[in-house]
Amino acid sequence: MAAGAAFDALRALGSFAVLGALAASWAHSTAIAAAGRINLQSRASEPMRKPSTKPQRGLRVADQIQRDLSELIPREVRDPRVGLVTLTAVEVTPDYAHAKVYFTVIGSEPAVATRGLNAAAGHLHKLLFKRLSIHTIPRLHFVHDTSVERGFAIDRLIAEAVGDKSDVATTVDKPEHPKE
Questions:
Q1: pTM above 0.85, yes or no
Q2: Is 156 in a helix, a strand, or coil?
Q3: Order of strands, sheet of 139-144, starting from the edge strand that comes earlier in the sequence
Q4: Which residue, of 69, 77, 109, 150, has the greatest Cβ tally within 10 A?
């Protein structure tokens, strides 16, 4: 009703062109709002959003650290405690201050290799600083990855369980079909 009264007042003033444009604009905006395409309410009450950063950046930094360390450890670490090391994963904290480097080792005890790699962590950090062009290079913390051994243990258990079932199946007598 208020809009109708406003139109009547403008019509009384005689500016039909303004009235037509105003009516068309009002009808268009209400039709769009009714269709759900725009929100005519004020957005002042909504909090401002932070600009979105790339969510995969931490993963990409971790992958690059893993690739670089895979090259650096065989070349630069001369510690006899460290055997043949394979890096399995790198986890970086959100502030890039620390990185857990998971590894498996052949030719050395895991505890001994962990001590050797953690002793060389400062040197590897310095070499990573020269290679990577990011603001903060994380401190390296080497952790032996036991998931491979656990996977082998689970495979062994599955093989034993399947092997036991096949032994049971072979001991059961199978009925013979009479020949006709």
A1: no
A2: helix
A3: 84-92, 98-106, 139-144
A4: 69
